[in-house]
Amino acid sequence: MSALFSIIGGGDVLMTLVLTVSIFSALVLAYMAYQEGGALINRLAAIASRRTNARAVDTGRAHRFGAKAGVSVLRRLADSLKLTRGAEAEKNASLLTQAGWRTREALVVYIGIRLILPCTLTSIAIIVAAPFLDSGFKLAMTGACTAIFATYLPPLVLQRIIAGRQHRFYKALPDALDLLMICAESGQGIDGALTRVAREFRRFMPEMADELQLTALELGFLPNRRDALANLAKRVNIPGVRTLTNTLIQTERYGTPLTQAMRVMGAELREERMMKAEEKAAKLPAIMTIPMIVFILPAMFLVLVGPAVVQVVKAFH
Questions:
Q1: Cα dihedral sign, 127-132-138-142
Q2: Is 235 exposed, middle or buried (0-12, 13-18, 19+ CB in 10 A)?
Q3: What residues does each domain of the chain span?
Q4: What is the pLDDT of residue 6?
C-alpha cells in the first residue's frame, strides 16, 4: 500500500485535499459572514438607519407639498426655464435648508410656487374685482398690485419661517451646550455627545434634534469632519451655532479641551441673553411714551379738567 501511495504521489494528494478543504471553509465562512452581517455591513446599516431617522421630518414635509407627479411636472418646468441652476438657485436652496427643508424637491416646489402663485392670485383678483370696477385701468392696477404682492409673498414667508426657527434655536442653544458639556465630561467624543443630546432634545425640540443627529451622521461618513461642522453652521446660521462649530473645529484640529470651551460658551450665551433682556427693559420707557400720550393722558385730563368745565358751563347757563 505504501508503495502504491508513493507511486501516485501521496504528498501531492494531501496538499490538494488540504487546499480544497481550506478554500471550501473560506467560502462557507464568507457566506455565513455575509448572511449574518459583518462589521462593515452593520456599520452601513446603522448609517442608513440614522440617515432615515434624521430626514424623516423632511420626508413628511415633502409629501405634504404634493404628489410625486406634480413635483415631476414642476421639475420639468423649472429645468426648461433653467431656474434650478445658478447663484439665485443656490441662494434659494440655502434659505430652504435654513428653514428646515433639506430634500431635493424643496427647491423645485419653491420655484413652482413662485411661478404659479402670481398667475393664480392675479386671475382670482381680476375675476372677483371685475363686477365692482367700472374702468379697465382700475382693473389692470388691481391685477398688477396683486401680481406684485404674490411675487414677493413666498420670500417674505420663507424669511419669516427662517427667523422663527432661528429664534427657537437661539433659545434652546444654552441647554444644548450644557448637555454637550456633561457628555464631554463623561468621556464621550463629539459624535457620541451630539447623538446623545439629539436623543434628549427629541421630546421638546425636534428641530434641534434633527440638526444635531444629521451632524453626527455626517461626522461618521464625510471624509473631512470639519465639513460636517461647517454644514451645521450653514443650516442653522445663528452666531451661537457658528461659535460652537468653530470651537468644535478647533478642538478637532488642535486637541484643545472640549469641556472648558463648552462651559465658557454656555456662560457667554446666558450672559448675552441677559444683556438682551436688560436692553429690552431699558427700552420700555421710550416705547411706553406713545401709548401713555394716546390713551392715558387724555383720560387723566378728562378726570382733572372735566369737573371744572362742567362748573363753568353751569355758571354761564
A1: negative
A2: buried
A3: 8-50, 63-162, 168-273
A4: 46
Kindly indicate the confidence band of residue 163, based on its pLDDT and cuts at 50, 70 and 90.
very high
pLDDT one-digit tens code per residue, 234-270: 888 888 888 888 888 887 787 777 777 777 777 887 7
The structure's pTM equals 0.66
- The rounded distance, in Å, linking the Cα atoms of 124 and 142 is 11
Tell me the torsion sign for CA atoms 209, 212, 218, 221. Answer: negative
Residue-wise pLDDT tens digits, 11-21: 555 666 666 76
CA atoms within 13 A of residue 101's CA, in its CB half-sphere? 21
Buried b / exposed e along 190-208 (16+ C-beta atoms within 10 A): bbebbbbbbebbeeebeeb
All cell numbers assigned to 241: 451655532
Nearest of 77, 98, 270 to residue 178 by alpha carbon: 270
Q: Give the tens place of pLDDT for each residue, 276-305.
A: 888 888 888 888 888 888 888 888 888 888
CB distance 122 to 147 below 8 Å: yes
Confidence of residue 43 (pLDDT cuts 50, 70, 90): low
- Give CA–CA dist 209/54, Å, rounded: 8
**Most distant CA atoms of the chain, gap in Å:** 155
